[in-house]
Design brief:
The complex is a heterodimer of chains A (268) and B (188). Chain A is mostly helical and 268 residues long. The longest helix of chain A has 45 residues. Chain B is mainly α and 188 residues long. The N and C termini of chain B lie far apart (39 Å). The chains are: A mainly alpha (268), B mainly alpha (188).
Chain lengths: 268, 188
């Protein structure tokens, strides 16, 4: 600024320029002046005096709590939903593996061989109804089989449908299995046939599994994991006894009851 | 009302500190000159109004960061220069075409009063001639001339406001004066 001002100027041109640019028609409109001055005043107003600023602050204050509440609510809802769904989705994976082997006597290599493919396939079938943990009665019967029961009888006894429906509460499986003769199986089969002959309720007609054994119907509803292997084992037992016709009938019933179930190779 | 004798910079600092009246004084001092600078620069009254308002709003919004590092005029015209550059970047082609049409730019300004005495007619003719002579100048030369005329700025201040070298500004200003003198020689 202290430097000598050598800005090129032309006083005559400047004079004519000023003459031409009269303030009357070369000035901003009053409306714009008013707008700018109002904005300038608004800008330096204290925040408390400006209602708009107050309104914004109110919204800003609410934004964070609302966000936090919404997020928490969402998280809680999600975790509750997951918790509710977990037993349905996880249980089959945990319980299906032991289910088929439970009906097989550990000491019997032929039964183990037969049951092995069923186990692996059952794992790979996603459409199988959810199966809860194996019934304790099944485990008990397995222990009993080890002791005394011959192979065919043991397999048959392990199935809960063997219990008579008309006899009220059936005796404990372990007790029955200890003194299970092959005649018992015959008695069962004849009881099944008798039940078939009886008049069946419409509901039972609709459910094929219940045609032969009402007890089995309950088992299918309540404890699917124990009924499937037991049912299959019953069919095998019938085959081993040479009762092919009956075995085929039971197999057909099974297929109706569990259309999505992948049968073991020996039963296909 | 007594005239406020504070400098532009003093007024701006006072406004920064919350004195709204300081801005009124500052605005009154620069409103016409800045508007004329913009009107001549862009050649469109409506656009000039839009830019003018925008520039003053920028001044208002930048008040908190204002420090006296240069003259207020330099700061103000630097803001104006940048706003114009932004505008040119967005609408360069359109503006060039508009600038080529002198009639359109002159017609954009308000019409003269119904009574047109000889002196007024002469002034309007001078205004038209000057506007067209300015429109013929390249934008940087026109800008240098208008900053010197309207802002009363020195070479250094123009160089600072436009972000160019002092010698470049000097050269632009010389060319601008020479061309204008040539265009308006019968009036000088």
């Amino acid at each position: 600024m202290t430097e000598h001002d050598d800005t090129p100027r032309d006083p005559a041109l400047s004079h004519r320029y000023r003459e031409a640019c009269d303030a009357r028609d070369m000035a901003p409109p009053p409306a714009i002046d008013a707008r700018i001055l109002a904005a300038a005043r608004e800008a330096v107003k204290p925040p408390a005096a400006a209602p708009r600023v107050e309104l914004r602050a109110w919204w800003q204050r609410l934004t964070l709590p609302i966000g936090v509440v919404a997020t928490t609510l969402l998280a809680v809802m999600l975790s509750l939903t997951v918790q509710r769904q977990t037993p349905e989705t996880v249980a089959p994976a945990q319980t299906e593996k032991p289910a088929p082997t439970a009906a097989v006597a550990p000491g019997d290599p032929t039964l183990q061989k037969r049951a092995a493919p069923a186990t692996t396939r059952a794992d790979s079938v996603p459409s199988i109804p959810p199966a809860p943990a194996p019934a304790p009665a099944e485990r008990i019967s397995r222990a009993a089989e080890k002791k005394t029961i011959p192979e065919p009888a043991a397999a048959a006894v392990a199935s809960p449908p063997a219990a008579s429906p008309g006899a009220g509460v059936p005796p404990p499986v372990s007790a029955v299995s200890n003194e299970m003769p092959s005649s018992r199986l015959k008695a069962e089969a004849s009881a099944d046939r008798a039940r078939e002959a009886e008049a069946i309720t419409p509901l039972q007609k609709a459910a094929p599994a219940s045609v032969a054994a009402p007890d089995r119907m309950e088992t299918v509803r309540g404890d699917v994991s124990s009924s499937i292997p037991a049912w299959l084992e019953e069919i095998r037992a019938l085959r081993r006894q040479g009762r092919e016709e009956e075995a085929m009938r039971r197999l057909a019933e099974f297929r109706k009851a569990y259309p999505g179930y992948l049968l073991p190779e020996d039963l296909r | 009302m007594a005239e406020d004798l504070r400098s532009d910079e003093g007024l701006m600092l006072a406004y920064r500190d919350g004195e709204a009246a300081a801005f009124d004084v500052l605005y009154a001092r620069h409103r016409t000159r800045l508007y004329r600078y913009l009107a001549h620069q862009c050649g469109d009254a409506r656009l000039a109004e839009e830019l003018y308002q925008d520039i003053w709003l920028r001044v208002i919004n930048a008040r908190a960061d204002y420090e006296v590092s240069a003259k207020f005029t330099t700061w103000l015209y630097r803001i104006a220069h940048h706003r114009l550059i932004d505008h040119y970047r967005k609408h360069a082609r359109e503006r060039l075409r508009e600038w080529e049409s002198e009639e359109a730019s002159i017609d954009d300004y308000p019409a003269p009063a119904s009574e047109t005495p000889p002196a007024e007619v002469e002034r309007l003719q001078l205004k038209e001639r000057l506007a067209s002579a300015l429109a013929e100048l390249p934008a940087p030369q026109r800008e240098a001339f208008l900053m010197a005329e309207e802002g009363g700025m020195t070479l250094e201040e123009i160089a600072s406001a436009t972000g160019t070298g002092r010698e470049t500004v000097k050269s632009r200003l010389r060319y601008a004066l020479g061309k204008l003198r040539h265009s308006l020689k019968d009036l000088l």
